[in-house]
Design goal:
The structure is a homooctamer.
Chain A lengths: L1 H4 L7 E6 L3 H4 L7 H18 L3 E4 L13 H5 L4 E2 L12 H10 L3 E6 L2 H14 L3 E5 L8 H14 L2 E3 L1 H9 L7 H12 L1 H19 L10
Parallel strand pairs in A: 1-2, 1-4, 2-3, 4-5, 5-6
Helix pairs in contact in A: 3-8, 3-9, 6-7, 8-9, 9-10
């Protein structure tokens, strides 16, 4: 299906969630931290829903960078954790690349904190290694907005595709016409686009008013 | 204690959560909607923790304004809902004022969507009626930032005290030296200041490293 | 009713729309011009709905300041135009003050372009002359945002009440429980808070789906 | 004419207006909602003026996404609506692509809400299918500004041309030297660039002053 | 006239331009530097036009603070320069206060760089000494925007009136119905509100078209 | 010299200043209008200094678009004005292209209001016609910031080089080691980077202090 | 001296630096963290220079709030640390108030992280207790900008004076005409207004060029 | 190693720090000046740590541009200074290019003030001369944000890689698993990402609490 329309093929995809650590999160200045946490959760839940392999890793998690946020394992329990021995670019860590190769898949979704380092370096390396690479910029988190602007230009120049969390979930989902349709909607409403949660609540209330009748008793008019 | 230092007395306080409705939330432009929802939850949980009476009301919830967000009842199950018969200023609705009077308390915490209407009008009326009034500006949500700027000036001019959600929770909490200390911390970390959640996670990890030893195996150096 | 709760009394109110001219509009930098035009329309329509006297004036409209925007007369055909002979502060123009005095009303709603001049000067003068004054800051339009910030502080310091268009309409409307309820809603949706227009459309569609059944034909699931 | 200068040829063009729905509009954070509505109207009116085929579609309009905004049919009554059966990428819906193919035209103007999904996915697919594609970014509306930044980079990388509503109307219009000249001007003034409306009013007033003489009576000088 | 409407009386006014020095200007972050320079020029020209006494002073101009900008003397050649012997608050310099007292006037217009120091300190001191004080916030220039926000609150709290350059010029001018009317307009167009310059040019062109006929030769239509 | 380092060759360059008209300037929202006017002056003066041919044109200057700003002719009196007969893309006007061709030069500097139309369309056309094209984005002025963002991407995608006024002047100037060195500095200080004017004033004062001795008399210390 | 001009008297002043802790700093969103750290250093150094008593305290520094930043003790070694037993408002801690009372001084400079809590609560309490209170808003650091806006209004309403770091240092310094003049300048250049550091460097270089002659060898011109 | 993953090879790299001068710094508007100074220090220290050749130059440092900031020589004492004879593009200065060629290295890291001139011009020239070029956008400093936006597009279009200071340091560092690991961390914490400094302090404190026990004595609970 991906061949048909230029979008990615979930069957060919691996998700790399790199260095989403509590300490590093406190250095993020381009995405509000709670949003960032939610976007990572959205990716994790989507991968779980579609049985997409998830590979995680952390940069010196026993130092000030802090631990991986617990939500990744919580919402993607199948995620494989590959420890590093100090490499900044996860692609420099042979076990990390081997874990990807073992899946036999050639499309990568990459999110990483910091965007211009932990997301960008493996993206550049993976494109060079022949992978089709999607960079989820807003599920990554960077130390400055200007650094993110340069990174969008850099990864696009290198041939990786810049995208955002909502688009990534939608590109994986492809259609509402599937059994998991409402579960995708729930992910988007809960973690990516909270305005949508309001829409659902209002929609259900509007329909309930038809069924149950109005409740506001205006004294004089209606 | 409040007499002593100019801050409010939780024993004398009623919390008014006015018109936090899903439809109205989608008109809010000064506070991100998920933040707004969380700030209201924080107020609701704090009121529950301290047994502060909560009074809610809604403006024509069977129309496009939408239903009250469900989290208020969920986290403040003791909240009393007072229906209105169309009044925009909740203070114009006699049952609403009577509900406040029944508590015998004279300090009001008011949050309402929209800030310049549903929060500001009752605040002005309550000051005139002799109440001490706190306006929680960022738990209210307004249709424009400029409207919020004018509203801060207006309610301060009228004698109501403008404040924010974090300050409100802290002013109610007063001290960490109480049985509920950690529960307040949890409210702030979960709903008001998510950076704090990262700090807790990092703090615990740092201490765990002392106890369990490091986990990063650098090949050559440490 | 106004006495009761500190809000204004529409029966005691005159609306002054000062120098909303096409040329001056092109100098406005604190409010998007189309929004400004709509906010003025909203005030004009509201005044018409409530039979509130409207007095307009213009500053040298036969020069680069340009003509009064045509929408004022269009939506408040009862507006009285008082020409000036060059005075910047409309209050310096005796016929303008006399027109106000003839109404016998003592509460003024003032909007004017530029905010820090055409709105602020008459507001200060009117407070000194014993009027209760509301300044509609976002229906005024100023040459810079910092000028608006100083003006909010200045008029509040002088004793005038700073407010915004939505709050002004709502303060005049007071309740949905009146014959004109839906017409107020239409004013707000069309001219002040366009997000509300979406809510109405979605609300009606949601109810229509209950009545007519769904229209999306998912091939496999629903 | 298009061949001559690199711009598009209106005779070869189809306009795709995808998922401009009231519910989705309330999730838009990169373009003010009233502006977005106006930009879509501008495209619709321009297509009508030039007899450019318009194809619309909606994503589950009987759910919280809400109905198509009514203005599309109102201002482009010749628009063909193609229902979808759940596909997120309209290009995945064979009847949608067939409708385009039936026109025999090979240049597409695409606007869609959300930008990074409903506009970007069909744009990428259409480029792959050999079409020349224009993406009208500000007539699309996205859930976050950062998502729009990544999308501009993505569609440009894919070979689609990013543009804006004013430029799109102007590129279709090509010259004032045509019978419909003033109607294009009216579209731009009413829906895209309201400052222009002020300029027209001021221009006409300035000319009227020459014809009718001045109206401001200064007491002492002129 | 000032008594009548609460605005200042130019006959009772002295203008204090404090520490507008080239070095200090390069520390200004709340107003664009060219705007700041122009606003000071506007004040200087207005004072000259109305024969308002101007008193200037500088803070250690032979050090990195740099010289007074030359435009003050250029456009207000009657300005009296009072050297200081190191005092930060100009009011602490007896010759400076004496120069003011010699004018016998009791209303002060103060602008100074930095706003929160050189404008605010003398403003607070002058209010205490019984003067009516206007603070021209945007003709002052501050080292940070937050510092300006606190300063507006501080001087308003102290009883000084915060205002902006346009409002100041207009409050001094009072009416277009005076011999110098067009010279005030020129000051505003050249130095305060450059959009106005465009309006004048467009206005004159529009009138010239009536007199001379159109110049655009459309081939086919008009 | 240009061949040597990839920068443009002034000897091969023509400057196109398109549609810098007073009316259109009032629609500009991405660059402050006085800055825009100054940037155009800087380009005009630079062209004059280097004897670079300048070609101007205007879009319906006898309508609301208004006249060309007078500063172009004032500072580039050698500019050739080519009237159009309604074409939006100046490249569609054969006399305009012929005027360029007559110079025999193949590098174009283009600035135009609006950026996404009057600058972008001729830029795309000229690249197609084989010219090397520089787009001076901030000497152009656009109706919205998002439109400018898309335009930078569009013209870069088309092969034109996006740049800014300061860089353009510097790229033409190439070296301070030329007779006109100080005149370039004056252009930059007066019209592009006013902070530089402060630097010059401070620099001269600092040197004067060495020559003339200090002037601040501190009573006690130095 | 303070009596004379309404500014504070350093001899009557105590500085309270409350809860400037590394963990809390990572929750600050209204002031860049490095700036905040520098502003606190500036206050500490100034207090040391003037022998102003400094009292510090921390909120649960053995938890996620983290330790006091080390710079306070480093630059104000005379600072007295008063531990708290959990009180959020430092004024609720009797030993803290006693430490202030022991100084016999009645003017307080307060900075605290978070602004709307740790700075605002003691400020309100101290005003009630009869102190003259200065709130240094930008040496405090808050969890959101809107919270800071409400806090400026709140403390001003309560009678405390809002100010900024630069103004505070200048108000304490009062004059350059003192032995410590250059040390104040160094504090401002190093920690508050780094643009000033550039000015000093440029000033010295300009004077050195006079003394040593120029160093740029232009080949052809000078 | 660089060959392996597409990142640069420090062994093949030269760092060019161009025109970081005190006067020019005061014209920078896209990066806060203290941040800019720190980013340059970070690059200098990193080069020193890795023995990467550094070449500096300055543009007319005996004029208003001011001297090179002293920190470059302070932290990269091995830096070679190449004087220019007026050339704006350092690449136009033969001794500058020769200095690069003498190193025999083919990868360049370029930072320069102003970004769109002093960084961009040599970047374009170096790419044309066959070098692999990294542009450190935020260690450069530009006169306007829009100029930076155009420059990112321009250098990417030319084939140079846009990046930021943090990414540059990390790309040079490559791994924590090296003797200098902690020195890199110190550079980042001190000069690039000060939030990290807080994390280190908090991390150490958290571990100290485990070792030494808590210090807060709550009266009643813990």
């Amino acid at each position: 299906m991906a061949e048909f329309n230029g979008l990615l093929d979930p069957e060919d995809t691996v998700m790399l969630l790199i260095d989403h650590q509590s300490g590093l999160f406190n250095t993020v200045r381009d995405v509000p931290i709670p949003d960032l946490r939610n976007y990572v959760i959205a990716l994790a839940k989507t991968a779980t829903l579609l049985n997409i392999p998830v590979i995680t890793t952390a940069s010196v998690p026993d130092g000030p960078n802090g631990p991986l946020i617990p939500e990744i394992d919580q919402y993607a329990p199948h995620a494989q954790y590959v420890p590093r021995t100090g490499q900044i670019n996860a692609w420099d860590n042979p076990p990390f690349v081997e874990a990807i190769e073992k899946t036999g898949r050639k499309t990568l979704i990459i999110a990483g904190t910091l965007t211009s380092v932990c997301m960008a370096f493996p993206a550049v390396s993976a494109v060079q290694a022949g992978y089709k690479v999607y960079c989820v910029v807003d599920a990554s988190g960077n130390w400055s907005k200007m650094a993110t602007d340069t990174t969008i230009a850099r990864v696009a120049q290198a041939g990786a595709i810049p995208t955002d969390t909502f688009a990534m979930v939608a590109e994986l989902m492809r259609t509402w016409n599937r059994a998991e349709g409402s579960r995708f909607a729930q992910i988007l409403a809960d973690h990516v686009c909270p305005e949508y949660k309001c829409l659902i609540e209002s929609f259900q209330k509007a329909q309930k008013v038809v069924e149950d009748g109005p409740e506001t008793n205006l004294d004089k008019y209606q």
